[in-house]
Amino acid sequence: MQRGVRAALAAALAWQVAIMLPSPLADYAYYAPLGAVIAVHPTVADSASAAWRTVLAILLGFGLAVAVHELTLWLPGALTIALIVALAIALEQWPVLREHASWVSFAAVLMLTVGAEDPARYAAAYAGLTLLGAAIGVLVTTLLFPPLQLTAAQRRIDVTRALLAQHLRDIAAGLREGEMPTPDQWADRGRGLDVALDGMRAAERIVERARRANPRARHWGGSALRIREQSRALDRVAVLVDDLTTLVVEFQPHRRGIDRIDGGTGWVLADALDGLAGVVCTPYAVLDETGTDRRESAIATAEAALQRLTSLLRTSDVGDDEGFFALGAVSVGMHRSLDTLRSGALDLRAA
């Protein structure tokens, strides 16, 4: 909705400015709103980038069309167009143009079909008015309180956090019930988390871009920093959790030699996974009815469960079993995950 309001306002302003210009520019006033719409993006940095890259692509297309047309007057029109389009597509591979590269071929063909009679005049009007509209679009985006996309990013983080915690709880439930999924089944379950992680990373990148040239960046800098810290901490934990849950699913260490030492290995491992899920779900210090910090309680519960698992490993005399080594790797992964979540909380408080 915000982008729609900005685009509408920018287009209207661009039109009003364009029609007041002297002829022949005023004759092509409709190109100014086009430039305004092109340049209106959720972030100031993206708006400025879209503006100059689009105008550059248009000028390249115009220049290419005029040059090829003049050099191939002796060729049939169809061959000239084919050559121009082929060269335009080649120019579109230039990395600088990014997602605005398609304007090269569009402008090249447009020059041949509309501006061939007076190329210089048409190029100046089209590119100039598009640039004018784009400048207005960037100005409107800058002045109308451009959002930092913090709410959308936080929502992505919350979704990822919930899925990651559910990921751990599902494995814990399987351990207690004795019904572990196969590796293929577990991979299918993990696709939702992978999608959420991709969305969270993309949202973090948008927040970083939104801070550039944004007048609101200073006021909301602390919130943006917390978004980045949360996202990166969850990303690191997700990688560790993926490794440790894969080990549990593939090797099922609770059913191997280690279980000869203690028949409750699966339950101990499940408690540790549930404890880690509780910390994942409690990113901030929150006081309950008794005044106890729920996050500190969650961390203490996870540490106690993980200590029981570690003690089980240390007191075991089964040192040559594949499941024993897998369980050791799982324990290390959970220790690292808990350390990452704990240090992330400290960083957030410091920010």
UniProtKB/TrEMBL annotation:
It holds the Pfam family ArAE_1. Keywords: Cell membrane, Membrane, Transmembrane, Transmembrane helix. The keyword Secreted does not apply. It is found in: Cell membrane. It is a multi-pass membrane protein. GO terms for cellular component: plasma membrane. InterPro entries: ArAE_1. The chain crosses the membrane at residues 50-68, 73-94, 100-116, 123-145. This is Aromatic acid exporter family member 1.
